[in-house]
Design a protein that fits this description.
Thrombin, subunit H; 3 helices
Length: about 230
């Protein structure tokens, strides 16, 4: 794991503050129709929750949104480092917005019929040409914060230099969005479960949001972290 990069400003300890980070993962399609999609993923999809998908085929790509109507543990796979990871299966019903664009879904469905029905076939036996990406949010507690970055606690490691959009929830302030880059990833010691301290640098923040964050830190009289 990478050591924490020193912040340009002191970071302050926080209470009851959090953030939302959008993540993405490649998924395998089991079946698709104009009404919905069944897929396999290495993350668990929550029931009655809306997710976004990007589907790519033949140089074309389009985005859809769907609500999870069923979700089960489908089996076990291998992670990037050869470790065992759970594989989940889920069915999503397309939202009304996606249902209006049935022509694109029909074209995609027609072009992928050569892959066959994958429901009884193992992941590694399939060589489908299409790509599908699932976008989903993670919610984390903010441990420390400064005008130029923060330290959060997660249940999964992040790669240093990864970048992603972040939404901050700070006490009674209106939520606002920033763009961040991972500067460090340290496994937290003495825990019964895996957790990580992730250092994030704010790359893009409007001047108004920067001023608002600085005033919030001053007004809240947060204690300086180590």
């Amino acid at each position: 794991m990478h050591m924490e990069k020193k912040s340009r400003h002191p970071r302050y300890l926080t209470k009851n503050m959090g953030c939302k980070i959008m993540s993405d993962t490649k998924v395998d399609i089991i079946d698709i129709s104009t009404g919905g999609i069944a897929l396999m993923a290495d993350v668990k999809l929550d029931m009655n929750t809306e997710y976004a998908l990007k589907l790519e085929q033949g140089g074309k790509a389009f985005s859809v949104k769907g609500i999870v109507v069923w979700s089960v543990l489908g089996g076990c796979g291998r992670g990037q480092h050869g470790d065992a990871i759970p594989i989940y299966e889920a069915g999503l019903k397309f939202t009304k917005e996606a249902a209006r664009d049935t022509s694109s879904i029909d074209d995609f469905n027609e072009s992928r019929k050569i892959c066959g029905d994958r429901r009884s076939i193992a992941r590694h036996d399939i060589e489908c040409p299409e790509k599908a990406t699932l976008y989903y949010p993670y919610y984390y507690r903010i441990k420390k914060i400064s005008p130029d970055g923060m330290l959060i606690q997660t249940e999964r490691p992040y790669r240093v230099n990864d970048t992603f959009p972040i939404e901050l929830f700070l006490a009674d302030l209106k939520p606002f969005k920033v763009f961040g880059k991972v500067t460090s990833c340290l496994k937290t010691p003495k825990n019964d479960y895996d957790s990580f301290d992730i250092g994030i640098e704010f790359l893009e923040m409007s001047n108004n949001d920067t001023v608002m964050l600085e005033k919030f830190i001053d007004k809240s009289q947060l204690s300086k972290g180590l």
